[in-house]
Design brief:
This is UMP-CMP kinase. By secondary structure, the protein is an alpha/beta fold. It is built from eight helices and five strands; from the N terminus they run E-H-E-H-H-H-E-H-E-H-H-E-H. The protein binds adenosine-5'-triphosphate, the ligand Nc1ccn([C@@H]2O[C@H](COP(=O)(O)O)[C@@H](O)[C@H]2O)c(=O)n1 and magnesium ion.
């Protein structure tokens, strides 16, 4: 049987990864797995042994050890029974990347990385607006600064790594562009 096909979706906090993933699911039949959502789900499980650890990492905008995140991703992939995945917000640092390669390198095919570009000030405005109703513990200015710092120091080098492998497909998700306008560009990447 063919290996599952994976598209990683990366971009700054609030760049619109989740928004575009929803549209890709509707148009192209992918299964959307957000690493952040999987971690929040695990954190909210009272029986979880790593719930408190995840809570602390998320609040500090730090990247949870890959053994936890990749374990949750693989479990969700298997449980879905599907074969085309958008993995949103992963790999976010070198630990994520090497952990994925070790655990999933032989089991899945990474087709490309969809990179959503968006200026920090636009992302900040969006996240603070979302924070009024999201209930996310990290949608506040203090956590957000830490998330951006992590993004710049740890995630941007991962995008560069995939760029060197010519696996990055970049879209402009920024200023004055509606989600539908952004999606018009995203579509080209999937057709
Ligand atoms: N092109 C856009 N124009 C205006 N608002 C947008 C656009 N794309 C997404 N948004 C809004 O910005 C907020 C953040 O979007 P989204 O949740 O998709 O980002 P994300 O990259 O998944 O963020 P995070 O990394 O924090 O999970 C949401 O409230 C969403 O509705
Ligand atoms: N690979 C990942 C992805 C996410 N996290 C943690 O979750 C937070 C929220 O992620 P979103 O993609 O939903 O914004 C993020 O700031 C990290 O704390 C992670 O550790 N590893
Ligand atoms: Mg998201």
């Amino acid at each position: 049987m063919a290996k599952p096909r994976v598209v990683f979706v990366l971009g700054a906090p609030g760049s619109g990864k989740g928004t575009q993933c929803e549209k890709i699911v509707q148009h192209f039949g992918y299964t959307h797995l957000s690493a952040g959502d999987l971690l929040r789900q695990e954190r909210n499980d009272p029986a979880s042994e790593v719930g408190q650890l995840i809570h602390n990492y998320i609040k500090e905008g730090k990247i949870v050890p890959v053994e936890i995140t990749c374990g949750l991703i693989e479990k969700a992939m298997v449980k879905s029974g599907k074969s085309k995945f958008l993995i949103d917000g992963f790999p976010r640092n070198h630990d994520n990347l090497s952990g994925w390669n070790e655990q999933m390198g032989e089991k899945a095919e990474v087709a490309f990385v969809l990179f959503v570009e968006c200026p920090e000030e636009v992302c900040t405005e969006r996240i603070l607006k979302r924070g009024q109703s999201s209930g996310r513990t990290d949608d506040n200015i203090e956590s957000l600064r830490k998330r951006f710092n992590t993004y710049t120091k740890e995630t941007v080098p991962i995008v560069r790594h995939y760029d060197q492998l010519e696996k990055v497909r970049k879209i402009n998700g920024g200023t004055g562009r509606t989600p539908d306008e952004v999606f018009e560009d995203v579509k080209q990447m999937f057709q």
